[in-house]
Design goal:
305 residues, alpha+beta, 3 domains, 7-stranded mixed β-sheet
């Protein structure tokens, strides 16, 4: 991977200057970054990927020297200790990741390695449902699923940011925006694919009249279901990484519908961006870490220990 000659960090963008320190980059570093970007955009990573994610547990009483080991400022290190939880530090080739993990562990940090292929399972999206006994009956594409508390491994939740892609040239100031959203992922012990719930599109008609907003209602259901289990909401601390919003089948306010607003040329719809893919990636590696922590990989799950 190309590195900035001034600060030594990886070249994160194809540009003439380093994203981190602003130093001018030599032509060979820019060319290497272009090749890396082309390789990463060639298509989805297959299960034969040899890369691994290196995750540090900041809730495991990290040593005072962790800021020097990870090249952090004292403020950033203090912030991570205060927040706790797990943090993805980097993605490396498996052999390099093993060496880096050994270095961090020797410094007293608790480290998990997760195969990148283990983060690629697509979620099963629940469109409707209701409480049933002590669990949830969820319905989606392909039928319904009954989720009992004993089936759950982990719940991951987080806010979804939505906005229109900025145009290069504007004739007037845009005043209309898009409302944000929320997602819940229910990770099961027996499956690598999470169950995804969107409060904004969830149909509650089976459960009768709502006693609160859709977000509060669904949150109450899930927190009751997951009582005593870890519920991770660390995604809210991440800076949103926006990309083209994926379609939401059957949703009345799907991004595909929002992209054609009244009074605009249908041949030039505004592109809707969101951070849903970022949330799904975060949720996937967080679940993989939890499986490593409890020693319970699902059938077909690929993890590195």
């Amino acid at each position: 991977m190309a590195q900035c000659p001034a600060c030594g960090r990886p070249v994160a963008m194809v540009r003439a200057r380093c994203l981190y320190c602003g130093a001018a980059l030599p032509a060979e570093a820019v060319a290497a970054a272009e090749q890396s970007a082309a390789a990463s955009s060639a298509g989805p990573v297959t299960r034969s990927s040899t890369r691994a994610l290196l995750v540090v547990d900041w809730g495991a009483d990290p040593p005072a020297s962790s800021e020097a080991v990870l090249d952090l400022s004292p403020y950033e290190a203090a912030l991570r200790r205060r927040r706790g939880g797990y943090r993805l530090e980097c993605v490396l080739e498996a052999a390099e990741a093993e060496r880096e993990a050994a270095r961090l562990r020797s410094a007293g940090l608790r480290v998990f390695l997760v195969a990148e292929a283990a983060t690629r399972a697509l979620p099963w999206v629940a469109a409707s449902g209701a409480r049933e006994g002590g669990g949830l009956r969820l319905r989606g594409e392909g039928g319904s699923r009954l989720v009992a508390p004993s089936d759950l491994l982990l719940v991951v939740r987080g806010p979804i940011v939505r906005e229109y892609q900025a145009k290069v040239a504007r004739r007037k100031v845009d005043t209309a925006g898009l409302e944000g959203g929320h997602r819940f992922h229910l990770h099961l012990k027996a499956s690598p694919s999470p169950l995804e719930l969107d409060p904004g599109e969830f149909d509650f008609r089976e459960s009768g009249r709502l006693s609160a907003s859709s977000l509060l209602e669904l949150s109450a259901w899930i927190l009751t279901l997951a009582e005593g289990l870890p519920v991770d909401d660390g995604f809210r601390w991440l800076t949103p990484a926006l990309g083209p919003a994926p379609p939401a089948p059957g949703a009345s306010l799907a991004p595909s519908a929002l992209s054609r607003t009244p009074g605009r040329d249908p041949k030039d719809p505004s592109t809707v961006l969101d951070n849903l893919e970022q949330f799904r990636f975060y949720s996937a590696w967080r679940a993989a870490v939890e499986r490593l922590r409890v020693g319970s990989p699902p059938d077909g799950g690929a993890v590195l220990t």
